[in-house]
Amino acid sequence: MSNTPYDTLPDEQFWSRAVTGKTPPAVNYDPAPKLRFDLRTEKFATAGSCFAQHFARELVARGGQLLFTEQRHPLVEEEAGHGYGLFSARYGNLYSTLQLRDLLEQACGDRPPVFDFAQREDGRWVDLLRPRAVPEGFSSAEECRADRRYHLGQVQKLVRDCTTWVFTLGLTETWMHAQQGHAYALCPGVAGGRFDASVHQFRNLDFHACHDQLDAAIRLLLRENPGIKVLLTVSPVMLVATMEARGVLQSSIASKSILRAVADACAREHAQVDYFPSYEIITGPQARGQFFDVSGRDVTAAGVKLVMDSFFATRVHGVPAHAAASDAPIPHWSEAIQDVSAALDAECDEILLDRRGSADGTAPR
Prior knowledge:
Layout lengths: L14 H4 L18 E2 L5 E5 L2 H11 L35 H11 L9 E3 L5 E3 L13 H21 L2 E6 L3 E5 L5 E2 L15 E5 L2 H18 L4 E6 L13 H22 L3 E3 L2 H6 L17 H15 E2 L22 H4 L22
Parallel strand pairs: 1-11, 2-5, 5-9, 9-10
Antiparallel strand pairs: 3-4, 6-7, 6-8
Helix pairs in contact: 3-4, 3-5, 5-6
């Protein structure tokens, strides 16, 4: 028998040796990382879908330095509804690559700030590009405008100050302003404003559109901070609802497959970009579905722990000076980490799409 290129490959590249017969924690999910991180010097920024909040909480709990450029004022109570501490800035969930590009272009001066505001029934005003990032809202449209300018300045500062930008890709389905082209986190009308079919346009980004938006965002990050590292992940959390005329399960798998392919392409194309397989750890056949909760959509705390155990085993070197080291106090995460699956119910904007909840009358997850 002649020799073939497969004869000298390592065990990790064969299913029978890498996966078969192993429990999920025993699998080496990330045997050849391009990027590794030193906790003594690394300054992380996190953005993306709800799953990015899991990553951020666990990173902080294990001694990582997570940057916050928008911090709670000492006179503002932690539970006052100001939206601090969920991400590195108050941008809320950035589900799509189009949202990410929009935000970075505004923050870095490549396009004018987008002022798209609405008044709520309680009289408060909301920024429709981040309708739940500032839960208490604003007292006026003028305050909205001033805070958005400040927010964009802090995002630019975050991009320039961090050493690693972690972005979790979440959805391909998005809503856009038909005339101005900017993207929303949620369909207007769900968490502020009124839906207008002549203004608010549904779009489901295909591979090429998703890739082009993410590639442009990465190039912006590299321009503003030439030494930055970009770590991509794909959220394993399934869609709450789909606007496509098909089942939500089919749309979920289609969406995640596109995002996974886009992340793979961008990691191959950029030397300072890498992918971490949190999606595969949770959804792969080796997991046998055990890391999804009873809804079949959300990830359990055990699943999040396995993702972060894998991340620290292969990606992290260096010992932090002390746990939860950071340039700034960590808002309310300094408390004991609770079951993050339950804790995130109120922080996932997409949840609001299902107003009727589950069949048994409980709140949607």
